[in-house]
Write a structure and sequence with these properties.
56% of the residues are buried. Helix content is 38%, strand content 23%. By secondary structure, the chain is an alpha/beta fold. Helix 4 packs parallel to helix 5. The longest helix is centred in the first third of the chain and has 17 residues. Strands 5, 6, 7, 8, 9, 10, 11, 12 and 13 form a nine-stranded parallel β-sheet that branches. A seven-stranded mixed β-sheet has the order 3-2-1-4-14-15-16. The structure holds guanine (GUN) and zinc ion.
């Protein structure tokens, strides 16, 4: 009889996942996470069935007569897949382009590349590469800009769907201050976005994000229609950029002279709220912060991009004190790495330059459960609570000679995690699973 029931899949390794925001606990950080030195993660139908101490769980399954097929990753660390809350797949091929701040960089590199995405073959090719690269870096969920072309959205959703990744994406809306071949109109952007919502939103693990690029490239009419869409469709997301660069902020003041602040432009059109994710958020004032907190609008912290484009220093402490949700983000290709580990490394340094700190526990919380919370997906992903989707990664802490040596001097989990985020990268990701299936394994 028992042979007819397929064995449950289980994974044995050290296991770490977060159950709370370390910053919100005024006791010590140790109550924000669970760690099992010899742990077992049990998966059924793509979801977490159990997570705990290996010997205890193995004994209880044996007692119950339930067969487990155990994959042994002893010596490695299993944690939830990383969540990237802001990135641009069409910018994959301009990552690391020399020498400019935001507005020049957009005109010189980004717009010419994005114009090429009218070609569906190119879009499919880049979308497939982009998703593979996310998985290779341990990222299982991402919130992604496409281009103004409808086809470019189909390409990224198809690529994510094939790999059963959780993905939020949308067509860029842009009807002024952009090259002619990258402009839509307020009405066409509304109609096309609506059609894409109907086609993709809620399909498998995919969700749609209304995507006005940023205030300077939209007319007031287009922002108004973006707000209309956001109100019309339950559960859809909104993504855009705000207050990244001082020249950009001054330009917005010129274009929208009536506005109290850059954020106020978006607020005016009903674009704040839960499931609205704003990239950068560097040059905001207290009133803006209060508005984001009151509406539970999320910030995407993009440290590699903020350093690379010379944009400025994110204020994490204010966001935390105000209770604004914060997600971690690569912002490829203004950002310089697909790796969430490298992103945490640069986040630590940005905050150091701003007189703040980022403990390793806070950092890994932000890259997993914290980002899930900022996307209102923490009922589905972000940790190993029973019933959540089984997106996880297997981390090799000793992937390079230097890391092996450094880890031998790390006396506790906190030191190990810190060395991992400062020295780590794609080479530390030994395997990546989505919905309990291995999508990529390092050989
Ligand atoms: N602001 C408007 N568009 C962009 C973009 O593509 N990248 C970044 N970093 N900022 C932007
Ligand atoms: Zn961006």
């Amino acid at each position: 009889m028992s042979e007819e029931i397929p064995a449950l899949k289980a994974y044995r390794a050290s296991i770490l996942h977060f159950i709370a925001n370390p910053a919100q606990l005024n006791v010590d950080e140790s109550s924000s996470y669970e760690y099992f030195n010899d742990g077992l993660l049990v998966v059924e139908d793509g979801c977490i069935k159990a997570c705990g101490d290996a010997s205890e769980l193995l004994a209880s399954y044996q007692q119950a007569g339930i067969a487990l097929e155990v994959k042994d990753y002893t010596g490695k660390l299993i944690m939830p897949g990383f969540i990237d809350t802001h990135t641009h797949y069409p910018q994959t091929d301009v990552i690391g382009s020399y020498g400019a701040q935001l507005l020049d960089w957009l005109n010189t590199y980004t717009f010419p590349m994005e114009a090429r995405f009218s070609d569906l073959d190119l879009a499919n090719d880049v979308a497939n590469f982009f998703c593979d690269e996310l998985l290779r870096n341990g990222t299982t969920t991402a919130m992604v800009f496409a281009t103004i072309h409808k086809n470019s959205v189909d390409a990224i959703f198809n690529a994510a769907n094939t790999r059963e990744m959780r993905l939020i994406a949308g067509k860029v809306m842009m009807d002024r201050n952009a090259p002619e071949n990258l402009r839509d109109t307020a009405e066409s952007s509304y109609e096309q976005s609506k059609h894409l919502i109907q086609k993709w939103h809620g399909q498998n693990r995919l969700s749609y994000a209304i995507t006005p690029r940023f205030a300077p490239t939209s007319t007031e009419k287009q922002l108004e229609l973006a707000g209309k869409l956001f109100a019309e469709f339950d559960g859809v997301y909104l993504q855009t950029h705000v207050a990244e660069n001082t020249d950009e902020v001054a330009w917005v003041k010129q274009l929208f002279p009536w506005s109290r602040s850059y954020l106020d432009v978006y607020d005016h059109y009903g674009l704040l709220g839960e499931r609205a994710i704003y990239a950068h958020c560097i040059y905001l004032d207290e009133q803006d912060h209060k508005r984001m907190a009151d509406t539970q609008t999320a910030m995407a912290f993009c440290p590699t991009s903020n350093l690379f484009l010379g944009s400025g220093l994110f204020d994490m402490n204010s966001a935390q004190v105000m209770g604004i949700p914060v997600g971690m983000a690569t912002d490829v290709g203004g950002g310089t790495s697909f790796s969430m580990l490298q992103t945490l490394n640069e986040a630590y340094k940005v905050l150091q330059m701003n007189g703040q700190s980022l403990s390793p526990f806070q950092a890994f919380y932000q890259a997993t459960l914290g980002s899930a919370e900022s996307l209102k997906l923490d009922d589905k992903i972000g940790n190993f609570e029973v019933g959540k989707e089984a997106d996880f990664i297997v981390v090799d802490l000793e992937a390079t000679p230097l890391m092996k040596r450094r880890m031998s001097h790390a006396d506790n989990l906190k030191e190990q995690l810190f060395a991992l985020m400062i020295l780590g990268g794609d080479r530390n990701i030994a395997a990546t699973y989505t919905l309990g299936e291995c999508r990529r394994e390092k050989v």
